[in-house]
Amino acid sequence: MHSRIALAVFVLCLVVGLTSAITIKAITCYKCMGGACNDDSLDLSHASVTKKSGCKSCLKTKAGPLGVERDCMNTYQSPGCTEKSVFGYTIAACYCNTDLCNSAGHVFVSMTTAVGFVVFTFLLLGSCDREKKKNKPWVTTEIMYHCSKIREHRHKKYTSLDS
Q1: Got the DSSP string for the chain?
Q2: Residue 122 belongs to what domain range?
Q3: Which range, of 15-24, 40-49, 78-87, 144-153, averages the lowest pLDDT?
């Protein structure tokens, strides 16, 4: 009886140990946003494109006129992609779990990232509206840049409908 319990405990410890060893393996991911980070022309020599080590998962998001962002995640995420439509723009978010896997045109993402990105987009659009009304000190240069890109894209979209 004791040998069965001891064997069961040993097997359980072995399984938990192996599982933990697999999920804590650190990987390296690309980290960048916009310009040099674009899908079609990931410019690895550009100063804004960096490699970050010690990641659990890599992330790549693409949000219509806002462009592409690649990042390092501190938590493990299952590989996969999701797409959501927000204000007529398609937002794709993908996770992957191998070294520098977020350089590809297509990687994998979880639903958590997509939802987070949708929330971020709503906040960004809200800050664009507030930024129009009056200048607030917390509105960063990056937000101002994205606001101008959104307005520019909206203007092009609506002027092309009038033609």
Answers
A1: -HHHHHHHHHHHHHHHHHHHHHHT--EEEEEEESGGG-STT--TTSTT-EEEEEESEEEEEEEGGG-EEEEEESS---SEEEEEEETTEEEEEEEE-STTGGGSSS----HHHHHHHHHHHHHHHHHHHHHHHS--TT--HHHHHHHHHHHHHHHHHHHHHH-
A2: 26-162
A3: 15-24
